[in-house]
Amino acid sequence: MAGPPPVNRDARTIEAVLFDLYGTLVPEYARADFYATVDAMGAAIGADADAFRAAWDATASARQTGGFATIEGNLRSICVDLGLDPGDLAIQRALEPRAEMYRRRFHPRDGAVETLTALRLRGYPIALVSMCAPDTPSLWAGTDLAPLVDATVFSSETGLRKPEPAIYLEATSRLGVAPEACVYVGDGAYGELTGAAALGMEPYLLVDPTLDHASLLTPERDAWQGATISHLTDVLAFLPAR
């Protein structure tokens, strides 16, 4: 396993670590699998497949920034927009494919628990900064990762988006550290690394060489040319005990 490149500054100036969620602490979904669940949702309510996909994508920003309190609310809104009245049973059937996908895939990726545990033992506060839908926070709370993180910033709860500065500053404020004293680790979705770097953070792109990254969902992929790591545990090589 290749180690991380040298950091650009003295590691002793780092006081905290921020992590992305999807594609970083938990696996990212394959684009094909993700949209298969979207198509199954549409079929369950009797929607035209193309019209439902378009409506689902069109509501992504609202879904991620508090526009819908639940995925069911998002689905019912789409039904209204498409002129559909499928009934409660069909709605519940439509929600099941997404729930099943999350049951299969929402789990700590290799090295996540080990890395967070080691960082805590070394004295680093940890924050999670996630672009996510409203079903993510409750899923997160049930993982082995949740007790290892000091602050969570979910876009669906805060209305904040990557790569806008406010979402990172919310995390650093909750940790009580300056942004320039933070490492940021993510898979590069939503321009997150460029956004972190603009605030003076030390960003690292996580690129697992065993994965076909082109097939993953990874929305609004960052054109990142900076530092890269190949495994979460690589961060432990340049963050010594404080």
Architecture overview:
By secondary structure, the protein is an alpha/beta fold. It has 2 domains: 11-27 and 107-237, HAD superfamily/HAD-like (Rossmann fold, 3-Layer(aba) Sandwich); 31-105. It has 10 helices and 6 strands, in the order E-H-H-H-H-H-H-E-H-E-H-H-E-H-E-E. A 6-stranded parallel β-sheet has the order 3-2-1-4-5-6, with helices on both faces. Strand 4 (182-186), helix 10 and strand 5 form a beta-alpha-beta unit. Helix 1 runs antiparallel to helix 5. The longest helix is centred in the middle third of the chain and has 18 residues, at 88-105.
Which terms summarize this structure?
six-stranded parallel beta sheet, alpha/beta, Rossmann fold, disordered N terminus
Query: Which regions are unreliable across 5 or more consecutive residues at pLDDT < 50?
Result: 1-8
* Alpha plus pi helix count: 10
The SS-based structural class is: alpha/beta
CATH 2nd-level architecture of the largest domain: 3-Layer(aba) Sandwich
Please outline the major beta sheet.
6 strands, parallel
Spell out the blueprint of helices and strands.
Blueprint: E1 16-19, H1 31-44, H2 49-58, H3 60-64, H4 71-81, H5 88-105, H6 112-121, E2 126-130, H7 136-141, E3 151-154, H8 155-158, H9 165-175, E4 182-186, H10 192-198, E5 202-206, E6 228-229
Parallel strand pairs: 1-2, 1-4, 2-3, 4-5, 5-6
Helix pairs in contact: 1-2, 1-5
Task: Give a concise summary.
With 242 residues, this protein is of the alpha/beta class.
